[in-house]
Amino acid sequence: MEKLVYLLTGKGSGATLRDSLVEKAVPGLRAGGASQIAVNVNDEHVAHGEGVAIRRSDPPICAMVSFWMQNADDRGPCEAALAEYAHTLAGYLVVESRPLLHEPPVGKRAPGANLVTCIKQKPDIRYDEFIDRWNNEHRKVAVETQSTFAYVRNAVVRRLTTEGADWDGIVEESFPLEALSDPHVWYDCSNEDEYKKRLQRMMESVTAFLDLSALESTPMSEYWQG
Question: Which domain holds residue 50?
Fold first, then answer.
C-alpha cells in the first residue's frame, strides 16, 4: 500500500469545494482504487483562523485530499476525479507516520482544526539531519509545548504531478478550534510568561531544520471518509 497526498487550489468557496469533494470526488476516488480517504478543506468552520495561515502559493492552497492505493502507478482515475474541482492539483507520494493518533468520525467533520503545513529542509543541513531533527527533537517539542491532539507526518518521497512545489514534508496537526485565535490555547498555557517560553522553544526547534522562508500553512477542517 502507498499513501498519496494531493494539494488543491480550488474553484469556488470553501463550502462549495468541500461539498464537491465529499459528494462527488470521493466516489470517483473509490472507483479508482482509493481507500482510507481524508478530505481537508479551508472552509467556514476555520475562517477565524486566517491569522495563523501562511500563504505563498498563488492561488493559495485551499484543500488537501489524501488516500491509500495498492499501487500509485494506477492513480490516473483518482487524479481525474480530483482535477475537476481544482485550479491546480499537486500530488505527492509520501511515507506516513503518526506521532499522535486520533480516530475522527467517519463521514463527519472531525473535532477541532487541522493545520496543514508544507515544509522544506533548511538548505545548510543534510537530509539525514533534517529527518532526525523532525522525527525526534521536534516531535518532543511539538507534543510538549502545544495543545495538539493529533499529529501526522507525511515525508515526501517524490512528486507525482508537474504542478506544485517540491516539498520535503506535509504535516497535519489537529488543534482545538479556539487555538486558531488564542495563542494561549495553541500553546496550552494560562499566562503570558509561559506562552513566551513555549513559543521560544518552538522557534528554536523549527529554525534548526526548516527553511521558514518557504513554509506554507493552512487551517482546514478534516472530513474522514474511511
Answer: 2-224
Residue 33, pLDDT score: 97
What is the CATH classification number for the domain harbouring 189?
3.30.70
Q: What is the pLDDT of residue 58?
A: 86
The confidence score (pLDDT) of residue 213 equals: 94
pLDDT score at 216: 97
Residues 6+ apart with CB under 8 A from 167: 92, 118, 119, 120, 156
Number of domains present in the structure of the chain: 1
Distance CA 201, CA 66 (A): 31
pLDDT one-digit tens code per residue, 88-109:
999 999 999 999 998 899 999 9
